[in-house]
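Weekly structure sync, notes
Attendees: PL, DS, HV (note-taker this week)

Item 1: Alpha/beta hydrolase
DS walked through the input record. Source organism listed as Nocardioides furvisabuli. Sequence as pasted into the shared doc:
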Amino acid sequence: MPLEPLQADVLGPDYRVETFSLPPDDEGPVVATLVTLEPARPNGCAVLHVHGFADYFFHDEYARWWADRGYTFYAIDLRKYGRSLREHQTPHYVSDLAEYFGEIDLAWWRITQRDGFTDVIASGHSTGGLTLPLWVHERRPPELRALVLNSPWFDMQGAAWLRSPATRVALERLGARRPMQPIPRKVDDVYGRTLHREHGGEWDYDLDWKPLQSRPVYIGWLRAVRRGHAQLHAGLDVACPTLVLSSARSWFGPQTDETATTHDIVLDVQQIRKWASSVGRHVTSVAVEGAIHDVVLSRPEVRATAYAALDTWLRAWVEPPSALE
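Item 1 (cont.): predicted structure, written out as tokens:
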């Protein structure tokens, strides 16, 4: 099928953007958005990227890194995030991570059936790094060649009681009775300030779509995430080569500019490494010294290290010899 006409995107004229409708939910109409960057010299392969919580796709450098290697780069803004968020919706809320499978299915169809790609790498960050392996385990798409997970959310960080059986039972019960009840939590804006250009960071993005202080967390949504964690912990069957990138260290104490810009202050990287092998049969885990939660938004010298690790892994396990010529 032919590509849709070019539409203007917030990232500029190099990007094609298309919005597709999904079945409505209790809040009304639902859409998702697919963003595409074409390479100058295509290698016949594609990448599909899925963002994290309180996030959307704005990672121009990451997309161009793939495009410079010939990959057609696609990124999806999931329902109720970023380009796909509508005024009548509760941002990010779903009661089951499998609800996202619908838009990932449609994006995958566009990439493989409409656009004809038979070799696709899937990429996910944080919550997207949990949702994507669950989708792969369920769908087993034949075109999938590899999985790249950037600080995937593999477990509940924090005190041990948060992961206890009693807490799990309480979350299940409360999630069924009061799914839209917000969970009290204290979240400062230190992570956002380390990123955004107007607050001392390097990156420019829409603060309405990715707020400095994150988003409210609802009981029903957290129940969905914990169910996803339980499925992962039981073991997934992802057969393709998988790369798990994370920071070398987390830090949850008092923050300074140095700790905030050299550690993962969102997730526990020990948990990420602990559960990485639960994704599938062929997993490589790389801890990047000095990286932050979104590894590809770290300081320039750190993300250069991360990209070098990604390039080495691609050459070793994914790309055929002809792609390296």
